[in-house]
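pasting for the record
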Amino acid sequence: MVRPVISRRVGYKPEVSYFKPRGIPMFDLIEVCLTVDEREAIRLADLEGLSHEEGGQEMGVSRATFGRILRNARTTVADAIINGKAISVQGGHYEIVITERRFVCAACKHQWTEPPGTGRPKGCPLCASLEVDRLND
C-alpha cells in the first residue's frame, strides 16, 4: 500500500520559474525539473537558514521529509549548475500559504514582521543588534 503524499505548505511564490545557462540556445539544453516544494525547501534552508526541524514545521512535514525534499532539490540544482542544464520550476504536492514572518530583537525586545522570501533580517530595525530571533506562531 502506498502512503498518500501530504501537500507541503509553500510560503513564497516568485514570478520566475525558469533558469538557463547564459549564451546557450534553448534547443541545445537538457532541462531538469525542480518542484515548487523543492524550491521552497531550498529557500527555507539555504536562504533563510532554518534547520530541518524548523523547515519541516514551515512546510507542514516532518524533519525527515524536509531533509529528503531538500536533498532532492540540491541534487537537481547541482546537476543543472555542474552540467549546464536548464531548470524548470513546476509541479509537486503543495499549497500556497503566504504569511508574514515575525521577529524579535534579543537586545531591545522590539518585534516586527517581514514578508516571505526576503531572507533573515540583517539586524534589528530599531537598535541594529544582530541578535534577532524568529517568533514561532
